[in-house]
Design goal:
207 residues, mainly alpha, elongated
Length: 207
Amino acid sequence: MNITKKEICTDKPTVNKLIEAAIPLFATKGLAAVSVKELADAAGVNIALISYYFGGKDKLYAFVLESQLAILRDAIDAISKEEISAVTKLRRFAEILLVTNKKNPYIDRLFFTEVFSPTKYFDSLVKSATHHSHLFLQGCIEEAKSNGEFRSDIDSDLAAMSLLKILNLSFTAQDLFKELMPSKQNIAAEYMSQAIEIYLNGVAKRS
């Protein structure tokens, strides 16, 4: 059973040190390649405290993964409650994705580390988070089709998948693009702004 936020007292300095140290290590190396000693050394705490607070390395990883993915899930839930059009929700999603990844730069790495090297938490955490994002985007696209804003021949499921992949590209290949386009000051923001408009123009109903 996974450890949830409710079961961890995150106001303890030692707990926060472990979480802050674990996020980049797990995101860049994966669960298997990170040792308990490495985690403890990075956090500057006694190695025994990982078991004391989390019940071991695996459960610390589960907590980190779940907490990071929950950030985007909570943002999507907030957008869903806004009384705005479906198209505006898609634009808001792009904006929130940019802000969220800027504040939490390892979310994307954690997600794709799981995609390419799945752990036992893939089904319960990663698939669930992906399903949540997909349902939100698919619902927005369906609504826009019903309102006559999007083309009726668009497959909502495939269109949702396409949008998520298009927007995520601004983070997954950001370092490479910085080298290819050094003149761009904020390439993620510029890409995101242009990508969402290109996408919306492509699916918009023609008059």
